[in-house]
Amino acid sequence: MNLIEQLRRDEGVRHVPYQDSRGFWTCGVGRKLTSDYLGPDGNPLSMDPVSDEQVNQWLQADILTVQNGLAPYHWYQIQDEVRRGACENMAFNLGVHGLLHFPHFIAALDMRDWETAAEEMADSEWAKQVGDRAKRLEQQILAGIWV
Fold it and tell me: What radius of gyration, in Å, describes the C-alpha atoms of the chain?
């Protein structure tokens, strides 16, 4: 398991644009479509399927955006690859700024207190919204293995 496999599982892969739960036009692996792909009415210019290559390019770019957004933070830098992956997965879903609204989780990570970090994840509105995804990422933080 790695971050790409996790995100493809957790976000799903869609080759045709769809409206997500908040009404945003989305495609690929949870990628919100930008104005380049939307007409003046806010709807997609095309409902034709995008290629696997395009989905993978978008995913790589979105992962890099998340990683660059987290890179300045000490609590992120000191994590092993697996726990960084859990943080990246959360930030992919919440946005980097959304993840920063978990100060007790972040403080626990900074102290490498995995149990408290996992508890902080579990005790959040986000965990209720994403269900099994949160449970898997909690286990990943606790055990330090890809889940």
Answer: 16
Which CATH architecture describes the domain 3-143?
Answer: Orthogonal Bundle (1.10)
Give the pLDDT score at 137: 98
Kindly tell me if the per-residue pLDDT of 21 is higher than 90.
no
Domain spans of the chain, in order of start: 3-143
Q: How far apart are CA 63 and CA 88, in angstroms?
A: 8
Tell me the pLDDT band of 133, cut-offs 50, 70 and 90: very high
CB environment 91-101: b (16+ within 10 A), e (fewer):
bbbbebeebee
Of 134, 135, 94, 10, whose CA–CA distance to 1 is shortest? Answer: 10
**Considering the entire predicted model, what is its pTM?**
0.94
